[in-house]
C-alpha cells in the first residue's frame, strides 16, 4: 500500500501546483471587470406554446438548426419531432426501448438520435425514401447507459455514457472512431464547440473535461463543483463553458485562462440543476431545476433576473433556438413549453 499512498500524495501535490499556477496568472476577476456594467433588467418570458402529446416524463429535447422543429424523448417510448410554430407533430417515432435519457437533432435536419438505459445510440433517418422513419443505425459498444448524444454531422456522432467514457462514432459503419477515457464517474452530458473541433463533458466525478476531437485527448479539466455535473454547454463564442450541478449551482469556466470565472447560486435554491442553456448572446443563462422552475441568470453579474414557472414537475431539459428567438423547456409533467 506504501507505493499507492506515495502516488496519491504526489497526485495531490501536483493538483496543488496546478491550482497555484492558475492563481498566479489570474490578473483580474470577472466581478471587477464588469463592475461598471449594469444588471440586465427583469426578464419576463411568456409561454407561447405548449406541446402536448407525450404520455410520460420527458427526459430530453433538442432544437433543429432551423429554429422551427425540435425533437423530444419521453419514457412513454416515443421520440416526437414537433413543429414549434403550429405545435403539430411532424413525426412520432416508436422506440424499441422506452427508457430513453437523451435525444439529438442532426445539424442537417436529416436525422435524429436517442439512447438511454439500453446502452445504445439509435439513429433514425427522417428523410427516408418512402416517408417512413426507420432505424438507420444502432451504435452499441457502451457498457453503461447512454446519457447524452450530439451529432457532429450526418457521418459522425459523439455519445457520453454511464461507463465513464465518451465515444466518437462513424455512423456509416456503426463503429467507434475514438474513445475518450479520463472521467472517474458516470459522464452525464456533453456539448460540442461551435467550431466542432472540441467538446466538453460533465460527469459524476464533479469535473468537466475539454476534449480535442481529432487528437482524442483531454485538453483541460475543470473542478470546483461539489456534486455531480448534470448539464454542460459551450458559451456561444466557444471561449467558455457553462455547467449545472446537483450542488444547486451553475458555473462559468473560461477556456483560455483555464479558470473558473463565476458561480450562479442563490441561498433560496436548494435543489440540483438538471439542464442549462445560454441565450444567443450569452448574456443570459437559463437553467432548469428539480424544483419545477427554470431560473434565468445574468451571466456577467451572477444575479437572478427571471424565472420560468409553469411546469408541475421537474424541468428535465431546456434548449434555446439557434436564432435565439425562443427557448423550450421539457418536464416530467409530460409537456414541453415554448417561451419568449
Question: Secondary structure elements and their pairing?
Answer:
Elements: H1 2-24, H2 30-33, E1 47-51, E2 58-63, E3 69-74, E4 78-83, E5 89-94, E6 100-105, E7 111-116, E8 120-125, E9 134-140, E10 146-151, E11 156-161, E12 165-170, E13 175-181, E14 187-192, E15 198-203, E16 208-212, E17 217-222, E18 229-234, E19 240-245, E20 250-254, E21 259-264, E22 273-278, E23 284-289, E24 293-298, E25 304-309, E26 315-320, E27 327-331, E28 336-339
Antiparallel strand pairs: 1-28, 2-3, 3-4, 4-5, 6-7, 7-8, 8-9, 10-11, 11-12, 12-13, 14-15, 15-16, 16-17, 18-19, 19-20, 20-21, 22-23, 23-24, 24-25, 26-27, 27-28
What does this structure look like?
With about 350 residues, this protein is mainly beta. Helices cover about 10% and strands about 50% of the residues. It is built from two helices and 28 strands. It has helices at about 1-25, 30-35; strands at about 45-50, 60-65, 70-75, 80-85, 90-95, 100-105, 110-115, 120-125, 135-140, 145-150, 155-160, 165-170, 175-180, 185-190, 200-205, 210, 215-220, 230-235, 240-245, 250-255, 260-265, 275-280, 285-290, 295-300, 305-310, 315-320, 325-330, 335-340. It has a four-stranded antiparallel sheet with strand order 1-28-27-26, with no helix packed on it. The protein has a four-stranded antiparallel sheet with strand order 2-3-4-5, with no helix packed on it. It has a four-stranded antiparallel sheet with strand order 6-7-8-9, with no helix packed on it. Strand 8 and strand 9 form a beta hairpin. The longest helix has 23 residues, at about 1-25. It is globular, with a radius of gyration of 20 Å. The protein starts with a helix and ends with a strand. About 45% of the residues are buried. The model has no long low-confidence stretch (mean pLDDT about 95).
